[in-house]
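stage 2 :: seqdesign
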């Protein structure tokens, strides 16, 4: 498999496939050929994670960098934040330059701040 790669793990029961596809499109549009692969991975109930792998060893040992986790981070990322996190994780100082509108710090990393921390997914029957 080619590297670096990004995997977006999402719950199909929550119908987050379109959201995952949108994030993938945003990353492809920003990073283009610098990313070798973006994978959309159906995952467990209520899960939404964005993982980065710089090498095959990281993926084989499941030691990729989790740059976003819906439960840990209490929601979904703003696309600016996600792009900044991917650049910082996979490309550091070398990758493609982000536009000034993206490079400016986002006031919040979330699309919409939740009223209370998200512990479970009400849309999924099997979520714990």
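stage 2 :: out
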């Amino acid at each position: 498999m080619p590297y670096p790669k990004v995997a977006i793990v999402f719950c199909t029961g929550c119908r987050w496939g379109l959201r995952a596809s949108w994030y993938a499109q945003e990353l492809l549009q920003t990073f283009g050929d610098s990313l070798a692969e973006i994978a959309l991975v159906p995952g467990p109930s209520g899960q939404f994670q964005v993982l980065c792998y710089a090498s095959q060893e990281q993926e084989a040992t499941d030691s990729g960098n989790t740059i976003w986790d819906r439960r840990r981070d209490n929601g979904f990322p703003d696309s600016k934040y996600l792009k900044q996190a991917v650049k910082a994780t996979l490309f550091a100082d070398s990758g493609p330059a982000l536009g000034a509108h993206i490079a400016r710090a986002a006031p919040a990393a979330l699309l919409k701040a939740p009223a209370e921390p998200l512990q479970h997914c009400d849309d999924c029957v099997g979520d714990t």
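stage 3 :: structure notes
- The first helix runs from residue 17 to 31.
- The helical segments are 17-31, 56-60, 70-73, 79-91, 100-103.
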